Amino acid sequence: MNINRLVSIHVGIGQAMLSGRPLIAVRSFEEDRLEDIFTRIADHLQKQLWVWQTNRGLISPQGNVPNTQTADQALGHLLQLSEPPLVWMKDIDQCFSASVIRGLRDIYYRWQGTGSALFLSSPNLIVRPELEREMALINLSMPNQAEILDILAAWQEDHPEAKKLPAKLIAATLKGLTRSEIRHALTRMAHHPDEENPIRQLQEEKRYLIAKSGTLEYIPKVPELHELGGLENLKDWLKKRRELLLMGEEAKEITPKGILLMGVSGCGKSLCIKAISSAWQLPLYRMEMVKIFSGAHGSPEQAFADACRLMEEMAPAILWIDEIEMGLSAGGSTAVDPVMSRIFAFFLTWMQEKPSGLFVAATANRIDLLPAEMIRKGRFDQVFFVDLPGVGERRHIFDIHLKKRGYDSDRFNLDVFADGTEGWNGAEIEQCVIAAITSAAMEQRDLELKDMYAARKQIVPISTTMEEQVRHIRNWAYERAVKASADE
Questions:
Q1: Rg for the chain, CA atoms, rounded
Q2: Residue 116 backbone zone (phi > 0: left; psi -120 to 50: alpha; other: beta)
């Protein structure tokens, strides 16, 4: 027996076969992929592959086996065979009973040393306690990059016009999808081409998958990096690390793991996270901590772990955790709240061991509420402080929001507005522009300079209304974080 060949077909299943295990359970949605794996193993071992499913019974290469419709009947027939074949039983976990469990245990003890195996598969297969010691359980991972590239190459044979697209970027975008879902996404791209951004079409397929989880949200529309006013230090950091993230396992030790943005509310932390997605051309997913703790998706610990593992399958990608201090505060590291404590412990370990290519981008308004073990090096690569914008940045932000709404910013004396809005954050500047446009529209005329002056007088910045809190945040971050903005 060629050991390397058997393992190369599938590492987990091949190793279970080599260890002589007659009962192998595989958790997977991909029956077409399992059929390919089991057929190749049968060919390699020169054995027949039999299949059982509840609506047809046992099916051998010679045809249907009569009186094997139920799992009891099928197992009874298999136990009478003098030369056991390889057998694949689909969805047998729906038929577990005392007699079925007994039949499976009989298979385990009688088929040892024969080189045969009984494979059980189901999307949500759970091994019964009575079979835990006899049965090997394998989670079939999603297709890796090499498999996706093979699927893509086969698809491109029928769509030669698509050969000009970047294969590695497409493969990275399709990571986390089943083979069928990959083909659906490619077909979608072929029928609804997006010349400017073909990757967007592929990401839509992931949107459907993420929507089913209930605790994660796919963010489709993200701004370009140049739409951020100022923040030159942060932009420079992102540009230099883009290539490292796309290298994946080749640069595992130096691949960026995550970034934590803290700062005054309204200064554009969330906008920065979205811009990372466009700058790195990676899909962005936001974890909904409220839904995780709602109980609608099972226990909070299980919902959180499931969301993290789903993101592992989606890598390379960006996971956005907004206001992380509200969901994972310092209280999580104590025994005050055991649920929070377990989630906190899981998150620390997961951040340390998650696969390369999965980048965690978190925001916090009060980083001083986070425990030191969360923000130490090795979990987040850098902690950036997004401060109130300086005068040059305020001018840039005014310019961005006027142009975004179709106005020529040269018509307005932006230097005056930049000077006169010290202590304002980006959200307040945007609201000033919106309020001025609204005032002009209500009088059915074009935007004028007087509207901007009037709108400015109506806004009291948060740095004034919450002066003590803002001062505390800025003082705390002064020597503890890297400024996202360049010194003016």
A1: 29
A2: beta
Tell me, what amino acid is at 28? S
Residue 225 has pLDDT above 60, yes or no: yes
**pLDDT tens digits, one per residue of 67-90:** 999 999 999 999 999 999 999 999
Give the 3-state secondary structure of residue 428: helix
Give the pLDDT score at 250. Answer: 60
- Given phi > 0 = left and psi -120 to 50 = alpha, else beta, which region is 256? beta
pLDDT in tens, 246-285: 565 565 667 788 899 888 888 888 888 998 888 888 888 9
Distance CA 302, CA 306 (A): 6
| Structure token digits, residue 313 | 């399958």
What is the enclosing helix (H) or strand (E) of 23?
strand 23-27
Q: Which positions ≥6 away from 94 have C-beta within 8 Å?
A: 54, 122
DSSP 258-316: EEEEEESTTSSHHHHHHHHHHHHT--EEEE-HHHHHHSBTB-HHHHHHHHHHHHHHH-S
Other beta carbons within 10 Å of 294 = 13
Q: What's the CA gap between 199 and 195, in Å, rounded?
A: 10
pTM for the full model?
A: 0.72
Q: What is the pLDDT of residues 133-158, one digit of tens each?
A: 999 999 888 888 888 888 888 888 88
Q: Which two tokens stand for residue 360?
A: 């965690």
Between 175 and 111, name the one with better pLDDT. Answer: 111
Which residues neighbour 338 within 8 Å (Cβ) at sequence distance 6 or greater? none
